[in-house]
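Course assignment 3, question 2. Fill in each field.
Student: A.L.
Task: Predict the tertiary structure for the chain below.
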Amino acid sequence: MTIGFTAIEFNTAHEAIQWTEAGERGHAVLLDRQHYVMEQAAADRLAAAGVEFAYLYDHEMPDGQRRIVTVPVN
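Answer field:
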């Protein structure tokens, strides 16, 4: 089964997260080892279809270091 979706592809997770934090729309996700920014509706469709992916977030650790973390879906 093929599921189409509209997204912007980025070379790194950091670039995708920066795009969303710069005020652009969408959510940074990791899907099939690729970094994308997609609208919530597209992510919801993928999740409903059982597609495995993860949301990407820039998380500040207690010591002030920043790390990219993933939140898996399906």
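Instructor remarks: Strands lie at 8-10, 27-31, 34-38, 53-60, 66-73. Residues 8-73 form one domain.
Grade: pending
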